[in-house]
Inverse folding.
């Protein structure tokens, strides 16, 4: 078992986090009502074969979401439709664009940590790991500084109340949970719709304007698609960065020897971030639906069956990783599947890694005595389809 899992008893029902492999790489889970894939090769195959394992799973979920929330959601598309949207959005996250953000991300990080030192206390998630990526994506979208309060708590609230696997399997009160989440999201959607309307009248040099005017094969996005894409980028786009920073520091806090080594040799920071991503992947599982009968992992799965590729199990497959439960920032190669695989490989990967590297380095620079508060222990989000620190009270004096 990984030390970080044991220390804070993360998701006690997920035995693969504790060094216990499922009996088979693919099994049917009666409780969830879906097939589950646990082996690295099987998960990679599922994510890499969109023709057999479709991402358009919403129609097969236990509760149906209002279609207007799904327009423009590339996570629910397959090529060729997905390719069109991905190309449009991907241009905004090119290496040139992301590299050009580095100085600004450093400045935002420094400003957030200045506030921490002024008030004399430090809650890692609330004070840095959460606001940093939200501010970055808000600036990309072109949201005015004085209006960013609309974002405060909305995305975090959505994460906190995510229905998770119940969305797939159903369960008591799940429909009310989904509709409640839609209602909580409405103010943000309304705000973004107003921002899009403003860009129609007065274009600006920002991501919203780009999305409105970008063309692919002579077609442009509708206003509702732009609104949904913007909100997906804001809500889901920052989850990985938020959890990446907090998870990395949770691993280093649990492994004092590695904390000392990484602090002394900053070339190890990217490796520490990657290893935390492997051991504690923010998206522990994804969802796909079979388009035809398929044999995988020694079983035959009929068409139109939901299957969950468990990234958190695949990243600990001993067939792929030596000492899979050990936190090792020098691990090389470290080909985890935390950012996905194939046509749905995360568009924000480069930005997330940059934010993680900058934030971890800044923490190590500023707080030589950084440590978790034993009187207020680290907590993790309860939903088992995510692995991420929810709260992290820091002592640094």
């Amino acid at each position: 078992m990984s030390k970080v899992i044991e220390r804070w008893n993360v998701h006690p029902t997920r035995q693969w986090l504790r060094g216990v492999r499922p009996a088979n790489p693919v099994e049917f889970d009666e409780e969830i009502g879906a097939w589950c894939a646990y082996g690295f090769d099987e998960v990679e195959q599922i994510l890499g074969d969109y023709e057999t394992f479709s991402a358009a799973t919403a129609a097969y979920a236990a509760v149906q979401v209002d279609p207007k929330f799904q327009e423009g959601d590339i996570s629910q598309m397959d090529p060729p439709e997905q390719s069109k949207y991905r190309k449009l959005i991907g241009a905004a996250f090119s290496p040139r664009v992301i590299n050009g953000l580095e100085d600004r991300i450093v400045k935002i990080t420094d400003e957030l940590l200045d506030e921490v030192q002024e008030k004399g206390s430090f809650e890692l998630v609330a004070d840095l790991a959460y606001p940093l990526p939200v501010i970055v994506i808000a600036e990309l979208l072109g949201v005015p500084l004085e209006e960013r309060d609309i974002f405060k708590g909305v995305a975090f609230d959505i994460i906190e109340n995510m229905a998770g696997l119940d969305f797939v399997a159903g369960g008591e009160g799940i429909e009310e949970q989904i509709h409640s989440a839609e209602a909580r999201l409405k103010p943000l959607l309304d705000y973004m719709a107003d921002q899009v309307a403003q860009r129609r009248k007065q274009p600006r040099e920002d991501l919203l304007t780009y999305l409105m005017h970008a063309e692919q094969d002579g077609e442009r996005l509708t206003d509702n698609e732009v609104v949904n894409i913007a909100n997906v980028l804001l809500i889901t786009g920052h989850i990985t960065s938020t959890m990446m920073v907090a998870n990395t520091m949770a691993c280093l806090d649990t492994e004092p020897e590695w904390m000392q080594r990484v602090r002394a040799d900053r070339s190890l920071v990217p490796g520490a971030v990657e290893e935390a991503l492997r051991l504690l992947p923010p998206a522990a599982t994804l969802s796909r639906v079979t388009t035809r009968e398929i044999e995988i992992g020694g079983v035959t799965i009929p068409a139109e069956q939901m299957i969950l590729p468990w990234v958190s199990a695949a990243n600990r497959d001993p067939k792929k990783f030596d000492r899979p439960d050990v936190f090792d920032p020098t691990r090389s190669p470290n080909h985890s599947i935390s950012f996905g695989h194939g046509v749905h490989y995360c568009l924000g990967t480069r930005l997330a890694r940059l934010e993680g590297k900058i934030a971890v380095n800044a923490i190590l620079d500023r707080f030589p005595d950084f440590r978790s508060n034993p009187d207020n222990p680290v907590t993790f989000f309860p939903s088992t389809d995510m692995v991420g620190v929810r709260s992290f009270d820091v002592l640094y004096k």
In short: The two ends are 31 Å apart (CA to CA). DSSP finds 16 helices and 14 strands in the chain. The longest strand covers residues 26-29.
